Amino acid sequence: MRNKLFTLVTALSLPILTFAEDKLDSGDTAWMMISTALVLLMTPAGLALFYAGMTRSRNALNTFTMVMGAFVLAFLVWIVAGYSIAFGTNESEHIQNFIGNFSNMMLSGTKWTDLSGTYPTYVFIAFQGTFAAITVAIASGSVIGRMKFSTWMVIVALWGLIVYAPIAHMVWGGDGALLFDDGALDFAGGTVVHMNGGLAGLIFAILVGKRRGYPRIILKPFSIIFTAVGAALLWFGWYGFNAGSAFGANAIAGVALLTTTVATSVAGLTWLIIEWIIYKKPTLLGLASGIVSGLVAITPAAGFVSINGSIIIGFVGALIGFFGVVGLKKRLGYDDSLDAFGIHFLAGLWGALATGVLALSDKDLLWDGPLKEHGDRVGQFIVQIKSVIIVGGWTLIGTVLVYFIASALTGGARVDEETEEIGLDESIHGERGFNL
Question: How far apart are CA 405 and CA 158, in angstroms?
Fold first, then answer.
């Protein structure tokens, strides 16, 4: 099966770049394999450390296990059926709007010699599988410390098929896919990954209920150093996430690499300064949170915007992330344990909408720009609004459905009071991560 995203990126790259379509290029192949490894690093190392450091010590091992467990299961679900649903082509025009088909289950019909443009289709499948895996892992941050591990693993399996794969198809699935045909822009996963995972996390958090004592008891992170190291690894892996979404070692990859670095630096500094002004103390946790907010915000726009655009996206992304974590959560009273909604959903939403405003047109580039109808910025912004509404609606309905199915299958999603008080490390896993 051909990589349909390659068609879009190729169209945005000509005439600066010359691609030999369906001809193996060793440079592109090497870059895409490296990018896959970088994105893989983001979940069981980067995200796991980032989340684990923000939990209480008695739940740190459980946090790590939920993230790593989500990755390995979600990736296998992607191989079994997720890839086919996301990138298959359905004969029914109406069904093709929302999902592909099931003909490529277990990669049936896909040969190791098949190419997605200039690199093997097997590499594309693995690359996209790491995206599927990190998306559901992001949602785990909202329910840390109070959800059964058995329930979580059932959620991971179902959510990848019911929520993630159809959304990936609608946005990235090629001709006939609902939002792809509309011209929705999502370079590397602002809507597909971050809005999707962040909103799912909030829904899970509301349905499973608040942690015992929250917000009366202050639940402080046990290792901000862990969180900072996790943020650094996420940033490192994000170059595979964003620059890898150029699908080759080409000029667009270079654009995405630089805009990612600029936006992230601006966002990290912005969050740090905001805290310094308001609380009179610049914190490492704030700096790490700002970095991740910037990474999330630039993701949908990385290959589409100028350096000036990336500065704006990073700056506003930090403001929105800070408001979501510090203000919105307190005002609305939900218990999003590690702020997956505040950072991933809100910053991802901003990035998706900002892409419609800041994406370069063909007047600014030497190739046809990504804007709908050659520079129709208003039209493109409307398309972006439509995409976030449809993605948000599908995530909401699908996530609620998945939660109740998983809860019913596992005898309830919430751990009992004793388990929560002892800590999930020992009570669920029989292990202690830290003697603190």
Answer: 9
Q: Which residues partner with 414 through β-bridges? A: 147
pLDDT at 215 (0 to 100): 84
H or E element in which residue 253 lies = helix 251-279
Instruction: Report the pLDDT averaged over residues 327-339.
Output: 94
Residue identified by tokens 């098949």 is 114
What confidence tier does 347 reach under pLDDT thresholds 50, 70, 90?
very high
Distance between CA atoms of residues 384 and 359, nearest Å? 11
Q: Contacts from 364-367 at CB under 8 Å and sequence distance 24+?
A: 364/306, 366/15, 366/16, 367/12, 367/13, 367/14, 367/15, 367/16
Q: How long is the chain? A: 436
Nearest in space to 424 (alpha carbons), one of 67, 144, 138: 144
Q: Return d(Cα 308, Cα 124) in angstroms, integer.
A: 31
| Tens-digit pLDDT profile for residues 235-257 | 999 999 999 999 999 999 999 99
Residues 6+ apart with CB under 8 A from 2: 22, 115, 116, 117, 121
Residue 298 pLDDT > 50: yes
Are the C-beta atoms of residues 165 and 85 closer than 8 Å to each other? yes
Q: Please choose, from the candidates 304, 315, 313, 379, the residue with its C-alpha nearest in 3D space to the C-alpha of residue 349.
A: 313
Helix, coil or strand: residue 188: coil
Cα distances (angstroms) measured from residue 62 to each of 44, 69, 148, 357, 428: 13, 10, 10, 41, 8
Q: What is the pLDDT of residues 359-400, one digit of tens each?
A: 987 555 534 556 655 567 888 999 999 999 999 999 999 999
Residue 211 near residue 337, CB atoms below 8 Å: yes
Q: Where are the domains of the chain?
A: 4-17+24-429
DSSP 8-state class, residue 147:
B
Q: What is the dihedral of CA 289, 140, 128, 377, to 10 degrees?
A: -50
Superfamily holding 4-17+24-429: Ammonium transporter AmtB like domains (1.10.3430.10)
Nearest CA-CA partner of 264 in 311, 319, 308? 311
Task: Give CA 83 to chain center in angstroms.
Answer: 16
- Residue 214 CB-density burial (10 A; 0-12 exposed, 13-18 middle, 19+ buried): middle
Q: What 3-state DSSP class applies to 425?
A: helix
Element (H, E) at 11: helix 4-13
Identify residue 220 by its one-letter amino acid code: K
| Distance of alpha carbon 269 from alpha carbon 275, whole angstroms | 10
